[in-house]
Amino acid sequence: MLEKRIIVCLDVRDGKTTKGVRFKGNVDIGDPVEMAAAYYAGGVDELVFYDITASAERRSIMIDVVRRVAEKVFIPFSVGGGIGSLDEMRDVILAGAEKVSINSQAVRRPEIIDQGAAAFGSQCIVLGMDAARDEKMRNGYRVYTSGGRIRTELDALEWAIEAEKRGVGEIVLNSMDADGTREGYELEITRMISDAVGVPVVASGGAGRPEHLYDVLTVGHADAALIASMVHYGDYTIAEIKRRLAERGVPVRIDTGLPERRDDSG
Length: 266
Hints:
Layout: E1 5-13, E2 16-21, E3 24-30, H1 32-41, E4 46-51, H2 63-70, E5 77-80, H3 86-94, E6 99-102, H4 104-108, H5 111-120, E7 125-133, E8 141-145, E9 150-155, H6 156-166, E10 170-175, H7 187-196, E11 201-204, H8 210-218, E12 224-227, H9 229-232, H10 238-247
Parallel strand pairs: 1-4, 1-12, 4-5, 5-6, 6-7, 7-10, 10-11, 11-12
Antiparallel strand pairs: 1-2, 2-3, 7-8, 8-9
Helix pairs in contact: 6-7, 8-10
């Protein structure tokens, strides 16, 4: 069985890591570069960096912060926020990210998925999706953009299937209903989309205890779990979360020491 991944999310606003509840009431909690380095040292499998206001403000991502984070970590690193062109994707990858996450811009211009996958490979293109329960939609969930500010007419399941056909290599599925609540992931939509697509699905929104990760990685069929508050506020360490999952039979990577710095000198 493939190992399940634990991913820490750094939502960044004005150069600071921030956290809110259901996309509201955000407060600054630390420096993203220092926090990324600490999570890397603590054994996290991957990191995700979201410039959460770039899309709404229609500006480019904070590439300097991306570069500084990439200099500190040597694990897969995904970056998103307002990215809507091949040039912007290229800038992020050249700054040190392995993956580019597109959300609002993909909804506005779905062809950016096809273009990005053709230029950089599907493994580099991640669909970020913010979804909330809405019984008016065919499969019960509606897609939102611009950090949850704009409601679309997209059904979440249908959008996930289309995005996979266009070439995304992974989907980060964030439940707006559960986001920041620390009461558990939204298992229904996670399982529905995980079962419908052939690419990895990362569950996001609602993690508060290791038991929540167990539920979404087993009952929810997610390939990875994204966490934020439960580690940002010091309630748990990455090592403790992985130990608790391993004790219940979930295959996870147990860290045996940091990888050596890459030497690209030839």
